[in-house]
Amino acid sequence: MPITIQQIAAAADPLRQFNVELVAGGIPGGGSGQVLRARSRSIVIPGSSTDDAESVFQGFTVMYPGRGQYSRKLAVEVEETSNLEMYNLLYNWKQLTWDPESGVQLASQQFKITAEVHLLRGDKSIAGKFKVFGMYPQEIGDVTAASDSSDAIRIPVTFNYDFHKLENGKLGRINISIGGFGGGINIG
Description:
The protein is mainly beta. The protein has helices at about 5-10, 85-95; strands at about 20-25, 35-45, 50-55, 60-70, 75-80, 115-120, 125-140, 155-160, 165, 175-180, 185. The chain has a single domain, classed as Pnp Oxidase, Chain A.
C-alpha cells in the first residue's frame, strides 16, 4: 500500500519528542553567555535514602532517621543534531574539570553551575521543575552516529552536583544530627 502525503505529514518529528529540558546559562568553556538548553526523552531523577540511627533506651531499641543519602548524579540522554554543537559544548566544559593533556584542573567555582530541570507535558508546558546546584559533567558517554538512521543523535551525559532543590522549596539534601537519649533531631 502506498504512503500518502497525510501519513508523511503526521509522522512525528524525532527532534520534538523530548519530555525533559535541562536549562542553564553561562556554561564554562562555552564562550560568553553560552546557554545550555539540552532536550532529552529520558532522565534519571536522583533518588534518596536515609541511614538508620539506633538508640537503646531502657532495654528497647528505638530507630531514628539518620543522615540523608543522595546520589548527587543526574543522568540525561541529550538529543543532538548532525553539527554536534551540544557535544562540543559539553566536551569543552568537561575539559575544565580536568584536562588530560595539561593535567590542569580549574577551581570548582569556575566549572560548577546552577541549572534547572524541566519535566514537560505533551504540549511542552512545564509539569514540574527542580534546580540543581554545583553541577558539572562527570561523564560524556559514547555517541553513536549512523548514516542509515534519521533519528536524532543521543549523547548520554552524567552530571555530578552538590544538591538539588524542588520547585516547592523542599531540599534535595537534608543534614540530620541525632542528639543523646533525650536529644532532638536538628534539621538544617
